[in-house]
Amino acid sequence: MGEYKTAVVILVVLLALYINVIVTVFYLALISSITNKELLQEVFNSIWLSLVTSLVSTTIVIALTLPVSYFLSQKWFRGKHVISSLFAIPYILSPSATGLILLIFLVKNPVGKLLNDSFNFINDPKGIVLAQVFLSFPLALIYYTSLFRTIPASLLEVSRTLGFGRIEGLYKIFIPLLKPQVIAGAMLIFARAFGDFGASLVLGGGIRGRTVTLPIALFLVNQYGDLALLAYVLAGYVMLAFALLMFMNMLER
Fold first, then answer.
1. What share of the chain is helix, strand, coil (3-state, %, to 5)?
2. What SS3 class is residue 23?
3. Are 36 and 233 in contact (CB under 8 A)?
4. Burial profile 92-114: b = 16 or more Cβ within 10 angstroms, e = fewer
5. Do 22 and 238 meet the contact criterion of CB atoms below 8 Å apart?
């Protein structure tokens, strides 16, 4: 323990500061009373919209990512680093920059205009899903590619011996074997989508009663200066994040 003394001291100080920051929000929520019921209802609506769009985008991202990640984890080919880097760009850019890139594509590019005319992405919940998919895909690709690299070569050989094709083996052997880690990855994707502000605001437009997700609602509540409601919603958001992280940690045990 002595050799870790410095690390333990830093951990305790950081933990005390961190808890103090979090507890302040909960304390304010407990001592305050909410008077703006209409705004509270809008916040509840935004939570529902965030849950629905995040679930849809998470499903799309997982369906796209699992086979691509498995392929990238098992195969080496010329240009692989270039492709991986291209897909990872939204992971580095700010969400608002990613949203603006998508908006320009949908407005100025002929293919983008055709897609927007067909599916009506701009100022619509479908635009929020598109933004969340674009933002979450790089995270999913990095996570699942790293996960599938841990599959032992002997297990790959067993899969082929049993007569499974590469993709068939992925879905029938490897994903069931790695189920806790795959679920943990899905929760990471969901959290990334649920917490997006910038890209969802740019594509969705932040239209009240239509395209306001929870992060956008928090921004609006702050703009209205309703500190009691802000603390109330933030406390619920923190509890949701804590529950999500606890579940992920339990999966990794």
1. 85, 0, 15
2. helix
3. no
4. ebebeebbbbbbeebeeeeebee
5. yes
- Residue 176 has which token pair? 């069931």
Inter-residue contact 180 to 252 (CB < 8 Å):
yes
Cα distances from 125 to residues 120, 200, 237, in angstroms, run 9, 9, 21
pTM, to two decimals: 0.88
Collect all residues with Cβ–Cβ distance below 8 Å to 227 and sequence separation of at least 6: 28, 32
- Could you give the 3-state DSSP secondary structure of residue 155? helix
- pLDDT tens by residue, 4-62: 889 999 999 999 999 999 999 999 988 888 888 888 899 999 999 999 999 999 999 99
Q: What's the DSSP call for residue 127?
A: H
What letter would DSSP give residue 209? T
d(CA 87, CA 83): 6
